[in-house]
Amino acid sequence: MMNKSNQKKQFGVMWLNKSSFSLYTESILQPVQHIFSENIVNYLEIIDEVQFETDMDFFIQQSKLPPTNFVLVLAQDMLFEKEFSTAESIQINSAERQFVDSVPFENVNSKTWRSEDKLHMAAFNADFYSYIKMSLEKAGSSITAVIPYFAVEKNQLDQDAIDSINTLVKKHEALKQANFIDSLPVVGETNPNENQPKKSIHSKREFILIGIFIFMLLILFGFIYWAL
């Protein structure tokens, strides 16, 4: 039997909303829907990670999902959105920070789209993406792009949406402009460049404390010596 990691991956689309997802691949021609239990997913958050993983594993096995490169489309109810007119006198960086801070999740991914007359900001719970990504990767699949629903101007996964997404994928620059994925944090992964300075700081602090301890011992021994 061929190992899944060695199989050529199909093209696929996962359309994710707050309570379910619909999935299409080249071998699953009719989109298949999977509804999340409220005990597992509630208000855009995965509240039981273990059950979520079990639920995803069961779905993947039951649907006989082949190794697939997925474009993940975030539906309107998965996103927090805000729009500004470029005619407004705003500090863009400040507005973006305030917007992201208003999104009620620990890890948030956001992006701003700029046009001649407006700024469109969108953000979502990045941990949700991370757990889906891990479940798919266990089955030999991957997520190659994460895009908002308005990038394909559709509200649901149907044949028109699939055709639009397929066309977008073939246009590298257009996909790059729509894609959230470049700056997405991943659950369980850390940046080695972030950790190294912390280790260095802790090491310096330990040496300083040891030096102070030795210095205090010398002073103590000096007092004892002169007292004798």
Would you give an account of this structure?
This protein has a 5-stranded mixed β-sheet, with helices on both faces. A 3-stranded antiparallel β-sheet has the order 7-9-8. Strands 4-5 form a two-stranded antiparallel ribbon. The chain has 2 domains: 4-83 and 93-183, Nucleotidyltransferase, domain 5 (2-Layer Sandwich); 191-228. With 228 residues, the protein is an alpha+beta fold. It starts with 9 loop residues before the first strand and ends with a helix. The chain has 6 helices and 10 strands. It has helices at 49-62, 92-101, 126-138, 159-170, 172-178, 192-227; strands at 10-16, 20-25, 32-35, 41-42, 45-46, 68-74, 80-85, 108-114, 118-125, 142-148. The radius of gyration is 25 Å and the shape is extended. A hairpin with a 3-residue loop joins strand 1 and strand 2 (20-25). The model is unreliable at 183-205 (pLDDT under 50). Helix 1 (49-62) crosses helix 3 (126-138).
